[in-house]
Amino acid sequence: MELEKALYKADYLLKQKRYAEAHKEVNTYLASDPESIPALIILIQIYLGLDKNEKADEVADQLIKLDPSDANILYLKGLTQTQTGKRKSALKFLDSALAFDPMMAEAHGLKAAIYFLDAEFEKALEAADNGLRIDPQNEICLNHRSMALLRLDRKEDHVQADQQALKSNPMNPLTHASVGFGALQKGEYDKAKDHFREALRIDPTNEYARQGMLESIRATNLYYRLFLKYAFWMQGLTPQVRWAVIILGYVMIRGLDSVSNALGTFAPIAQAVVIVYTTFAISTWIIGPVSNIFLRFHAFGKYVLTEEEIDVANRCAALLLMAVLGAVLFYSFDVDPDVQWKNLGFYVLCSGIALTVVVSSIATRTLEKSKRRLKTLGTIFGIGCGVLILMAFVLPNLAWDIFNLLLYSFIGYQFYANSQE
Predict the structure, then answer these.
(1) Which tens digits make up the pLDDT trace of 189-234?
(2) How far apart are CA 138 and CA 142, in angstroms?
(3) TPR repeats: which residues (predicted)?
């Protein structure tokens, strides 16, 4: 009886989002019955709530061994695979779940979410419609149907889908957040703020709404609005096309830079294009965390930032200050005897900007394994920058070789970081 009470209490605490307490109760039950399917299902949900997605995935494997034909277990495995970034594998498990239970609207909804993340909007719309035929009030299907319609530029259908989603459940924070992102994409910033604010009023812990609120506050800046339009455009492309755009842009700028001197009167224009593109490219890598520096002083924004975001903003501020000091040093020395000081300023300037990009790229990854990989590479790169600055004092001729090595390492790091989620 006591054990049954522990399981009931764990489920109650889970619904209250008191994950640590729920974890303690479910462990009490599992200590006496380690193969209890209901307890393991609760444990998966607890791990997902605690952002321990890899542990949740391991428990899902354990459940599948106990009952490989249970549609709910296969759905949970699809969910944990999605959360760990293995979306193709997740789709296979969801299809298996639907083979056993074709009426599982949640599985169709999760398929719609996966297809949406992969920019396969027609498939996302089809999956959402399949789920809504089973359950017309399913919120995941309603929200992803609305978002897919927006990306497919079916604006009238999108407006109707938003109204339907809000009518279905006006107290659902995910629905308000989804409508808010739709308004954000259409440039309706005040409307977006209203919906994000309502979502956070209903559920102050809703991460999707919190991120949306941050974006809408940042969008008060004209330059950030241009960046948002670019970001939404890139998100509307398939991953393969995104890579093609990135690589093509890099190749074109490198080519334009190499021939700019041979363009005669058009050389200044070519150089200006290279500078503008490079500045824009770098700013897209750091604009999120760097904008948080200013949000720290915003009347409302400072309350929306997490401790981690504040920490990253502080690091970026320090690194950008380092870059500014390097720029001052670089432009303060312009005579041959002091060329090593001029070079030192250049190295400090480049290191400050590059490390800001590295810190920003780590902060914007959503998967823990991606963050771990990038932190390791970022630490190595940071040590390399330190060695470069030291060599500028000790062996200035060798420093230039180290700089070139770090430059190519930085380019490689960015391509690798863009492949991580």
Answers:
(1) 889 899 999 999 998 888 888 888 988 988 888 878 888 787 777 7
(2) 6
(3) 71-104, 105-138, 173-206
Query: Which residues have CB under 8 Å from 172's CB, separation 6+?
Result: 139, 165, 202
Q: Please state the pTM of the whole predicted model.
A: 0.74
Long-range contacts at 337-342 (CB < 8 A, ≥ 24 apart): 340/392, 340/393, 340/396
CA dist 199 and 208 (Å) reads 9
Please name the residue that has the structure tokens 């770098």: 282
The neighbour count for residue 66, using CB atoms within 10 Å, is: 12
Name the token pair of 370: 């991606």
Instruction: Give me the amino acid identity at 178.
Output: S
Q: What is the pLDDT of residues 134-155, one digit of tens each?
A: 998 888 898 888 888 888 878 7
> Contact, 213 vs 304, CB < 8 A?
yes
Q: Which residue has tokens 């990253």?
A: 312
Report which residue type is found at 296. Answer: R
Contact between residue 209 and residue 181 where contact means Cβ atoms under 8 Å apart: no
Q: Does the domain formed by 2-225 have CATH 3.40.630.190?
A: no
DSSP 8-state secondary structure symbol assigned to residue 265: G
Hey, what are 84's tokens?
């760990």
Rounded Cα–Cα distance for residues 107 and 95 (Å): 8
Helix (H, G, I), strand (E, B), or coil: what is residue 58? Answer: helix
**Furthest-apart CA pair in the chain: how many Å?**
88
* E-assigned strand segments in 123-185: none
Ranges of CATH 1.25.40.10 domains, the chain: 2-225
CA distance 88 to 421: 14
For the stretch 351-354, contacts whose Cβ atoms lie closer than 8 Å and that sit 24 or more positions apart, written own/partner, are 351/322, 351/323, 351/326, 351/385, 351/388, 351/389, 352/319, 352/320, 352/321, 352/322, 352/323, 352/324, 352/325, 352/326, 353/282, 353/319, 353/320, 353/323, 354/381, 354/385, 354/406, 354/410
